[in-house]
Amino acid sequence: MTGWTALLELTRTSFRAPSFALFADLLFGWVCAPGRRTITAMIAVADPTGRRAHDAYHRFVRDGAWAMSGLWRVLAVHAITRFAPTGVVMLDVDDTLFHKAGRNVEGAGVFRDAVRSTLRRVVYALGLNLVVLTLRVTPPWGGPPIALPVNARLHRKNDTTSTVEHAATMLRELASWLPDREFHLCGDGAYASLCGAGLPRTHVTSRIRRDAALYQPAPPRTGRRGRPRTKGERLPTPTGIATNARAADWQQVDAELRGRTVRRLVLVRDVLWYTVNKRDLLRLVIVRDPDGIEPDDFFVTTDHTATGAQVASRYAGRWSIEVCFRDVKQDLGAQDPQTWKRQGPERAASLSLWLHALTWCWYLDTHPTGGTWITRPWYPHKNTPSFLDALAALRRALWARRITALSAPAAEDTKITDVLLDTLAYAA
Prior knowledge:
By secondary structure, the protein is α+β, with helices and mostly antiparallel strands. It is built from 12 helices and 12 strands. It has helices at 2-9, 17-32, 39-46, 54-63, 68-83, 163-177, 238-244, 308-316, 319-331, 344-366, 387-406, 414-425; strands at 89-99, 109-112, 124-137, 146-155, 183-187, 202-207, 214-215, 234-235, 251-257, 260-271, 282-288, 297-301. Strands 1, 2, 3, 4, 5, 6, 9, 10, 11 and 12 form a 10-stranded mixed beta sheet that branches. Strands 7-8 form a two-stranded antiparallel sheet. The longest helix has 23 residues, at 344-366. The mean pLDDT is 89.
């Protein structure tokens, strides 16, 4: 368990000594508690003998003298230095709703629930709306990329700062932590305006509206009096460009789609999307399924050196952040902590994302080949670990240390202990 202890030690300077002890115990309880991850359930696992008053843990989350920004900085610098030591750092951004119940949950509001909404019906729900920035990591065992949260911001109802502005602030903060690194950020269409935000040392890839008003670049100055033109002739919309394109305009490429290679047709054209960026051209990439089964996709990027295949692959890798949100809510119980006042709700939600990243950091270092799961006869072809497998491996290691500390089992008791640890590892 030296790896887990070493990771926790990185955060020691963010706390005072008593708070750090509470923090370490709370994380142990969060990882190992079966069932709902309420703070009370965490205490029952982390402090079963009642060494501290139970309210100490509640006060730590609600009013403790510590800041999530310090934890995010430690985690982001460690994760990027360890898993993306060279080259461009791949990042993804999106917002997600952490469901909450109750009239007086600090920071909660009624927002669109993207999971339950459809094209024809929008569903709204009460909860915390968090904008999350993740590091995209290619695991050593191959397969789809993994998203490690490296920063998060709470977006409140009627907030003067939009979700896009929160994303830009987090990126600028990350750039200040790593002043010698370059970044590439992917976000869905809601974050397309970041293409004109002037983010430091950062290229952006996003979806573009199908009806976006596109223009040719501004013509050169004529020398006549008056204000020079800022845009050229109007171009068709992205769908119009795709419809009017000739067969020779399309290029056949191989793109990476969630860990597998697929054949696609791409059309690349540099355009001026004046609404988003009034100064610089953006690269429009239209991706088409050669079999005609899937509809066309329309992407835009600030990277003028990118090929159509690279843009399609980069955006497809953005799906890892959606998997991260699912894992945090389903496997870590991110919506369960029952803390309502002051900083409690925001901190609990952010800590769940932070713990998700720390768990992957531990697993990637200690199990670089994966293979830690129990083979099941109904799932014989499983060859890559999920977050639940990483969490189960961490639970097993933590419980083994707890049981060994109580009484070291004799050699003949190993089989019994192994069965117990395997059961505790996947207890939920």
